[in-house]
């Protein structure tokens, strides 16, 4: 599929009301960038194995809906990026309109499921890969595989890299990644490995500001190939992988 960057009008997304929480929605983004990794060269030359996201997705980041969630909303934004892929590419949703859930909707869903107390709604509490698996199943009826990777280069290079290769080849969806010491949520859009090590294609939700074009996001490093060895070697990492392959494939 040819990758491209297109505008996505904000009036196509139901952001879940007026944003009653403190510092609520003040201005909606006019557009969201699509397929922001398109055009990035592979990080390695020579014999390499690269596995990438398949299909269209939107890039969600701090404040993209007008709600200032800096410092706590990265997990929510990564969920929204994954959800945007499901809206467009997962076969049970074809012909249906279920836009990515807003931050208030995500919080209320976790309360409704009993995972969080009522006080969690309208809070600024973080969420991670476990909550992401619950939310994606709640809104899209898609199961998720959770993979725990202990800290250390060998674990990341072998377990995480191989799991990601298998995921992108079979399922093709973005993956959510988070950890303990490295507790900044990130989206993973691909993996590339060769004799000189491995790289992850990371889309970072921590950008805050006006909407940027694809090339500017790449230039500033908000979507980039990151060497696996550059990750925090003392942190464990969890991967949330939507299981979207059709039965029998």
Automatic annotation (TrEMBL):
UFSP1/2/DUB catalytic domain boundaries: 49-240
Keyword DNA damage: no
A family per Pfam: Peptidase_C78
Top-level lineage group: Eukaryota
A GO molecular-function annotation: deUFMylase activity
GO BP term, example: proteolysis
Keywords: Hydrolase, Protease
Family under the similarity heading: Belongs to the peptidase C78 family.
Protein name (record): Ufm1-specific protease 1
Species assigned in the record: Collichthys lucidus (Big head croaker)
